[in-house]
Write a structure and sequence with these properties.
This protein is mostly beta strands and 220 residues long. The chain folds into 2 domains: 36 residues, no CATH class; 167 residues, no CATH class. It is built from 1 helix and 15 strands, in the order E-E-H-E-E-E-E-E-E-E-E-E-E-E-E-E. Strands 3, 4, 6, 9, 12, 13 and 15 form a 7-stranded antiparallel sheet that branches. A 6-stranded antiparallel sheet has the order 8-10-5-14-7-11, with no helix packed on it. A two-stranded parallel sheet has the order 1-2. 33% of the residues are buried.
């Protein structure tokens, strides 16, 4: 009788190493389970994961304004033609100057490149510290006000109202926004596409400690 069992190689002490294009055995645990990682985790392992955070890690950045403007977002990730990206995680904590009221936060998606001019361009850092690749996508913050192209599709990924009080509970749930692909379905942003984030509060704009993570790969 033929043995049709899946052949797994236990590699808990030392990972298998192989050159590009080489056939390898599927990996298993000592319990006999197949070891499978998520697409996003694998792309990070492949050197295709990137992140952007505060320019000065000790300083919260005051971004956006005191009312909603479609062409003045706080954060903008543009994914060019030929590149596909998937969001991995967004973390935002209020800090610095207390906002002048309840903060409205909107994470939106667009099917085109939105950047026009202004703002501050950030250099994405590879999540693999040997930095095998640089990002094709571009990231901007509104430190000096982004001018963005007009929106064509109203696609909201997430929205929130956030407590502006950073003095009494700086890391409390009301003052923090967190989105993760581990708890929500990540959109497939086939370029040209963008992630456009708005944050605003009455009287005084909110300030943020932030971290955006995504993976990207050639669309072809």
């Amino acid at each position: 009788m033929a043995d049709n069992r899946m052949q797994l190689v236990v590699a808990s002490a030392a990972l298998q190493g192989a050159a590009e294009g080489t056939l390898v055995n599927a990996r298993g645990s000592q319990r006999g389970d197949a070891v499978v990682v998520s697409t996003i985790e694998q792309l990070i392992d492949d050197g295709r994961g990137f992140m952007v955070s505060n320019t000065a890690r000790e300083t919260a950045e005051a971004l956006a304004g005191t009312s909603f403007s479609d062409t003045a977002p706080a954060f903008l990730l543009d994914v060019p033609t030929g590149t596909t990206a998937k969001l991995a995680e967004i973390t935002m904590n209020t800090g610095g100057t207390v906002a002048g009221g309840v903060i409205t936060l909107l994470v939106t998606l667009s099917d085109k490149l939105r950047y026009s001019s202004g703002g501050t361009a950030k250099t994405p850092q590879n999540l693999s510290f040997d930095e095998p690749r640089t990002a094709n996508s571009s990231f901007y913050t509104a430190v000096s006000a982004i001018t963005a192209g007009a929106n064509t599709d109203d696609i909201t990924l997430e929205g929130a109202l956030i407590d502006p009080d950073v003095a009494t509970a700086p890391y409390g749930a009301p003052t923090k926004f967190h989105w993760s692909a581990k708890t929500s379905y990540s959109p497939q942003l086939v370029g040209p596409a963008s992630v456009v984030v708005y944050s605003f509060a009455a009287t005084t704009a909110p300030s943020w400690f932030y971290n955006f993570k995504w993976v990207e790969y050639p669309t072809t």
